[in-house]
């Protein structure tokens, strides 16, 4: 066994230990902090599996943004005084048996995977040449499986609409309550002023290099979302009202541009979501610009939650 | 034993752990956490498959990786929706229990 | 050299893992948050050491560094938000 | 030359790892929250800084090196602010 395998084994065991803690921990807060740790470990695992694109998205969303969302929920639920009835011993035993069965089955599957592993990498490599992209994962997202990516954007929007629709009627169109009136000059406003410009730069950088190197619209958008949330926390930027026109434009931009390019392909007679022969790369970059913006805004607003204060001055 | 196998087995165990938490944990917030662990396990399983498919000078099969990237974002939006529903439930009933309790009718009376 | 860096990565990972015991034991929420903070910088070190400072790893490290304080900020501020909501609802009564 | 650089890397990374050890020991053994916070900042700032220093000769010049330095500076800013925030929260409660 070489050093790399031992390291991976240690990392895998640590991931399992942290996950186990998240499941069985007594307090919700401890479990959530454990989950933040879990997200970080998971992105190390993705690096170990040589999937840096996934590692970027996971490190931005998995620990950081999801952690902020859950910590916020935990703080609001602190006053919940439920005495929850836990599952009986028999129920837990049955659950344990079921889960052990599922795990054993999956381990069996992992061990019995066919040996010359089936792979679509050569096909993806071929499609790279025609698009002018250098990153196969971005090419898969934007060309090979473009329809999936577009529908995934629609899912994000639907999720946001669903979250907004949870607001009581009297708040509809208003602002979400988030962050706080910030005292000037505290460490938080320092952090926000230093970190937000750099973070937005890094987000744009990740999206830009995503054409040829690990990165892309999802990682870039997630970073921008995180910076937006930090701005709301620090009170340096106000949470927009959900009825604001510019906000709606930013939200819809990704799907709209994607759909527009798709329909243009249909009109040109080459088929839905096909790219023009010699302009493939600029068109893809255009879609990605809109997507990065939409993903960033949508993710940030998903964390912020439904409107909670009526619209007005 | 390869790196893909190690993380594949780790992923299988994560799926089991997450499923157990989803069933056995009574609090909704903890169920959401368990759901995320379960999802992480499934994504990691994809990662193991992708790593095995390393070919054509790439570190892994890009197609499962792309699926996982969209999957992470969708899992996040599902989590955010779950949290929003939970907070609304708490606002309405003052509790987070998923069972029908007489408490619910009481709080309706006080609201109206 | 690669081997040495991997050993060092393993060592730092072990240290961070030990630090995680603080999440388990608490006693205070702030202690738990601190363990996560240690994990943030330790994780960056592990990542860069295990990849020998390669470029994709440096990008991931950059993202982790940007979000290193994120959970702590959420921890500190969400308490404030909850408190503000509470006082508002108490005023309403 | 490369031998000297390797020795430099090994020395710097070992020192860095030592500070992570110190940070973890402090996080586990110190008696109260604020002293534990004090131990933690050593690991963040010095440990990670030394490890970055050790990795510098092995990364692509200049962008890889600049990225590593940027990561370290960002972690400094993030962990310093986060420690402040956590410490204030501890003091206020």
List keywords for this structure.
heterotetramer, B: 112 residues, mainly alpha, Helix Hairpins, 0% strand, elongated, C: 93 residues, 86% helix
Secondary-structure topology with pairs:
The complex is a heterotetramer of chains A (313), B (112), C (93) and D (93).
Chain B lengths: L2 H22 L3 H25 L9 H32 L8 H10 L1
Helix pairs in contact in B: 1-2, 2-3
Chain C lengths: L1 H18 L1 H5 L3 H22 L4 H12 L3 H23 L1
Chain D lengths: L1 H28 L3 H23 L7 H30 L1
Helix pairs in contact in D: 1-2, 2-3
Quantity of strands of chain C, as a count: 0
Radius of gyration of chain C, rounded?
18 Å
State which percent range the strand residues of chain C make up.
Answer: under 5%
Portion of residues in helices of chain C? over 70%
Most strands sheet of chain C: none
Overall description:
The complex is a heterotetramer of chains A (313), B (112), C (93) and D (93). Chain A is mainly alpha-helical and 313 residues long. Chain A folds into two domains: 76 residues; 190 residues, no CATH class. Chain A is built from eleven helices and no strands. The longest helix of chain A is centred in the first third of the chain and has 25 residues. Chain C is an all-alpha fold and 93 residues long. Chain C has one domain. Chain C is 86% helix and 0% strand. The C terminus of chain C is likely disordered. Chain D is mainly alpha-helical. Chain D is 87% helix and 0% strand. The radius of gyration of chain D is 16 Å and the shape is elongated. In chain D, 45% of the residues are buried. The model of chain D has no long low-confidence stretch (mean pLDDT 86). At the A-C interface, α1, α2, α3, α8 and α9 of A face α1, α3, α4 and α5 of C.
């Amino acid at each position: 066994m070489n050093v790399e395998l031992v390291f991976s084994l240690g990392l895998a065991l640590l991931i399992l230990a942290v996950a186990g803690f998240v499941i069985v921990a007594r307090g919700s807060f401890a479990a959530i902090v454990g989950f933040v740790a879990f997200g970080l470990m998971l992105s190390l695992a993705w690096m170990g599996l040589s999937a840096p694109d996934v590692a970027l998205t996971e490190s931005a969303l998995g620990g950081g943004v999801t952690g902020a969302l859950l910590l916020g929920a935990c703080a609001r639920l602190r006053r919940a005084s439920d005495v929850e009835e836990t599952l009986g011993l028999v129920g837990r035993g049955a659950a344990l048996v079921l889960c052990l069965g599922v795990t054993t089955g999956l381990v069996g599957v992992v061990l019995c995977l066919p040996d010359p592993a089936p792979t679509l990498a050569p096909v993806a490599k071929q499609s790279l040449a025609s698009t002018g992209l250098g990153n196969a994962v971005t090419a898969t997202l934007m060309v090979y499986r473009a329809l999936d990516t577009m529908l995934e954007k629609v899912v994000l929007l639907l999720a946001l609409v669903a979250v907004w629709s949870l607001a009581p009627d009297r708040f509809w169109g208003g602002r979400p309550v988030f962050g706080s009136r910030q005292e000037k000059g505290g460490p938080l406003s320092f952090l926000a002023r230093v970190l937000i410009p750099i973070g937005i730069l890094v987000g744009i950088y990740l999206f830009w290099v995503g054409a040829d190197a690990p990165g892309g619209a999802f990682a870039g958008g997630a970073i921008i979302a995180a910076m937006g949330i930090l701005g709301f926390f620090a009170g340096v930027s106000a949470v927009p009202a959900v009825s604001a026109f510019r906000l709606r434009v930013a939200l819809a931009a990704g799907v709209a541009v994607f759909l527009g390019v798709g329909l243009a392909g249909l009109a040109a007679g080459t088929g839905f979501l096909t790219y023009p022969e010699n302009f493939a790369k600029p068109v893809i970059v255009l879609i990605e610009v809109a997507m990065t913006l939409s993903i960033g805004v949508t993710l940030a607003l998903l964390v912020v939650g439904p409107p909670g204060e009526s619209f007005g001055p | 034993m390869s790196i893909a196998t190690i993380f594949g087995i780790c992923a299988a165990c994560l799926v089991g752990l997450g499923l157990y938490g989803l069933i056995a944990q009574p609090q909704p917030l903890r169920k959401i956490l368990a759901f995320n662990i379960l999802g992480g396990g499934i994504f990691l399983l994809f990662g193991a498959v992708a790593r095995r498919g390393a070919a054509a000078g790439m570190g892994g099969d890009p197609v499962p990786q792309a699926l996982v990237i969209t999957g992470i974002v969708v899992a996040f939006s599902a989590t955010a929706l779950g949290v929003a529903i939970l907070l609304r439930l708490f606002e309405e009933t003052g509790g987070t229990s998923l069972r029908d309790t007489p408490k619910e009718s009481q709080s309706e009376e006080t609201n109206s | 050299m690669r081997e040495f860096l991997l050993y060092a990565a393993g060592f730092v990972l072990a240290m961070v893992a030990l630090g995680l015991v603080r999440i388990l034991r608490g006693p205070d929420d702030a202690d738990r948050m601190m363990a996560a903070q240690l994990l943030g910088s330790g994780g960056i070190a592990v990542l860069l050491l295990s990849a020998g400072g390669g470029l994709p790893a440096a990008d991931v490290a950059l993202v982790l560094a940007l979000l290193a304080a994120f959970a702590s900020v959420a921890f500190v501020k969400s308490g404030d938000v909850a408190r503000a909501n509470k006082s508002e609802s108490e005023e309403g009564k | 030359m490369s031998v000297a650089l390797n020795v430099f890397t090994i020395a710097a990374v070992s020192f860095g790892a030592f500070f992570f050890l110190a940070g973890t020991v402090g996080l586990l053994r110190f008696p109260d929250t604020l002293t534990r916070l004090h131990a933690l900042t050593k690991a963040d700032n010095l440990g990670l800084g030394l490890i970055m220093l050790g990795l510098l000769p092995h990364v692509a010049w200049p962008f890889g090196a600049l990225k590593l330095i940027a990561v370290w500076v960002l972690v400094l800013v993030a962990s310093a602010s986060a420690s402040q925030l956590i410490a204030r929260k501890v003091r206020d409660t």
